[in-house]
Structures are given as C-alpha cells and as structure tokens.
Amino acid sequence: MTLSLPNQGGLSLIPYLMAGHPDLATTREIGRKLVNTGIAALELGIPYSDPLADGPVIQRAGQRALDAGATTEACLEVAADIAAERAAPVLLMTYVNPVLAYGPQRFARDAAQAGVAGVIIPDVPVEESAGIARTMTVAGLETVFLVAPTSPDDRIAAACAASTGFVYCVTVTGITGSRSALPTDVNALLAKVRTHTDLPVAAGFGISSAEQVSLLRGHADAAIVGSAIVNELDAGRDPGPLVRELLSACK
Ligand SMILES: O=P(O)(O)OC[C@@H](O)[C@@H](O)c1c[nH]c2ccccc12
C-alpha cells in the first residue's frame, strides 16, 4: 500500500508498535486490528540492542522482544502479515545496524516483498544517507527522515529533500517517551518545516494523550504515538481503546 497522508488540513494518526513486544503473535494480532481502525499508517519497530533515540519504555520493549527471539526475519514476516490486511501502509522503524547486518539490499527487497511501504532509519545522518536511501527507493520503499528542534535550517532542508512519503518532525529535544506537556513552539517548528517541503509533516515524540493530539490539528498532518501504546501493552491491556480515543482527537 502506498504511503499517502491526507495533507489537506486534516490530522491523522500513526501508532507505533515494537515488533515482538510482548511477543510476535501479539504484534501480529494487534497490528492487524490497528490497521483497520482508520489510522494513516502503522509504524513497526524492529528491536535493536543499542536504540540510542529510544526512551525507557521503548528500550524495555525492544529488549523484551530481543530476549523472546524477535529476529529481523521474524519481524519482516509479522510486517507482511499486517500489510496483507491492505488496510493501512506499514512503515518499518529500524536503526541502521540491523539493516547492515541483514544486508541493505536484501532488507529492502524483503521489506518490499512483505508489502512494507517505507522505512524510517533515525541514526543515518541525512548527509550520509544517499546510498542506503537509494537502495530503499530502488526497491520501491519510501524513506522518511527526521528533523528535530535542534536542526539548523540547512539540515531541515536536507532532511526534507531526502524524505519521500512524509517528513518526521521530532517535537522535543531528547529521546522517545511520554511528556506531560509538549513544548509550546512545536507548531512554530512544524510551520518552519513546511517552508522547506510540500510533503506531509508528521509530529512525534512525547505525544501520549488525546489532548496533545488535538493541539496538533491544523499544524501537523499526522501525530505519531509510540510509548503510550507500548505502555498499554506493558500493562497487559489492548491498545485499541487508546488508539480510538487518539483517533477521535484527530477530528
Ligand atoms: O514514544 P513516543 O514518544 O510516542 O515517540 C514515537 C516513537 O516512539 C516512534 O516513532 C519511535 C520509536 N523509536 C524511535 C526512534 C527514533 C525515532 C522515532 C522512534
């Protein structure tokens, strides 16, 4: 499924799941349900031992997934099962090391064959991304790059130029994880990013509540929510109700 966020003043939702947390069967089951709820895309994390951008909740989820044997191969199979619903595009969030270990071309080919729409590889600096981005693009995958509040204009421009599908705007300085309040200048950052691109812009990091999602209406094209969903699974709850609540805050 191609990745196309509305980009017409409407806000949509991109929930994140860590593949293999708490186990692969649960990711498959929850992922299949979530793509049928009206979300814009599902971001599926591939666990990795040194997740430098991840806060404690996602780090723990990744470790649990690795301990339970969630290999990249197994995660790609789960991605394929979720993508087979053909209900919402599936994006893979992975650090560059698992991709290099798997082999970039093999990874790109297998992800595309699995029906994955695109990849987010947060630790590839945009200046060094041309090779790996080309490998993904040739396979038919979108490449989403991140811009942060600390990114100078030239790096925002470079990340926007390298991105396809949408641009991931990191709302806070630091790592993933719920925050009680988002910085007040998020919307200014989103507006600045828009001066560099016509692509949709998604906001992520620290968004956990319906109230925070609703503050992004009219500013972002999508809200990305990770840790809050992982938290539900940690507590043994189905994240469906939270996702539905977040979705209604998009309207
Ligand atoms: O967990 P949060 O604060 O809701 O943020 C989204 C985030 O989890 C997800 O997009 C993500 C998980 N790991 C990442 C690493 C880098 C960039 C983004 C991510």
From TrEMBL:
The family this protein is said to belong to: Belongs to the TrpA family.
SUPFAM superfamilies in alphabetical order: Ribulose-phoshate binding barrel (SSF51366)
Superkingdom: Bacteria
Pfam families assigned: Trp_syntA
HAMAP family: Trp_synth_alpha
Quaternary state and interactors: Tetramer of two alpha and two beta chains.
Phylogenetic classification of the source organism: Bacteria, Bacillati, Actinomycetota, Actinomycetes, Pseudonocardiales
Protein name: Tryptophan synthase alpha chain
Reported function: The alpha subunit is responsible for the aldol cleavage of indoleglycerol phosphate to indole and glyceraldehyde 3-phosphate.
Gene Ontology CC: cytosol
Active site positions: 43, 54
Pathway participation: Amino-acid biosynthesis; L-tryptophan biosynthesis; L-tryptophan from chorismate: step 5/5
Keywords, comma-separated and alphabetical: Amino-acid biosynthesis, Aromatic amino acid biosynthesis, Lyase, Tryptophan biosynthesis
Swiss-Prot/TrEMBL catalytic activity: (1S,2R)-1-C-(indol-3-yl)glycerol 3-phosphate + L-serine = D-glyceraldehyde 3-phosphate + L-tryptophan + H2O
Cross-referenced InterPro entries: Aldolase_TIM, RibuloseP-bd_barrel, Trp_synthase_alpha_AS, Trp_synthase_suA
EC identifiers of the protein: 4.2.1.20
Molecular functions per Gene Ontology: tryptophan synthase activity
